[in-house]
Amino acid sequence: MKFLTPTGLADPKGYAHGVACPLDGSIVFVAGQIGWLADQSFPSQDIAGQVRQALSNIVHILLAAGGRPKHVARMTWYVTDKAEYLAAQREIGEAYREIMGPHYPAMSVVEVSALLEAQAKVEIEVTAVIPK
Q1: What is the 3-state secondary structure (H, E, C) of 101-131?
Q2: CB-CB neighbours of 18 under 10 Å
Q3: How does DSSP classify residue 46?
Q4: Which of 7, 28, 63, 66 has the greatest number of CB atoms lying within 10 Å of its CB?
């Protein structure tokens, strides 16, 4: 993967502006993951805890495809409360670095009015490129 930070754009902080990926391998599309367990219970009611679980779910899926966090090319985060997300940035960052490591793909964060599961505060979609 080649991370793109062209001249003339602000330096990204915790994400990449763009990612160019070779087409020799597999592209894995991970459906939106929320912060629940296999039994559909939420181990945490706060956004940072739900981010931690959602990221763990994503890594579990990547491993099933033969990938790792470093293969993630893009992420889209849907959050139900921008203020809560911003207030928990430190804890979210800690969870991210613990689970994803020092890998910062292209990312977007979007505030939405609600998610399908009423208790969910965050949902994260991922596209990964896993080399042969």
Answers
A1: CCCCCEEEEEECCCCCCCCCCEEEEEEEEEE
A2: 15
A3: S
A4: 28
Q: What is the number of other CB atoms lying within 10 angstroms of the CB of residue 91? A: 15
User: What would the two tokens of residue 15 be?
Assistant: 């994400």
Residue 22: closest CA among 2, 45, 40: 2
Conformation bin of residue 66: beta by default, left when phi > 0, alpha when psi is -120 to 50: left
Domains of the chain with CATH codes: 2-131 (3.30.1330.40)
If one counts every other C-beta atom within 10 angstroms of the C-beta of residue 60, the result is: 12
Cα(78)–Cα(69) distance, integer angstroms: 19
Averages of pLDDT over each 10 residues, the chain, 132 residues: 79 79 83 94 97 96 92 97 98 98 95 97 96 87
Residue 65: how many CA atoms within 13 Å on its side-chain side? Answer: 24
Q: From the CB of residue 94, how many other CB atoms can be counted at a distance below 10 Å?
A: 14
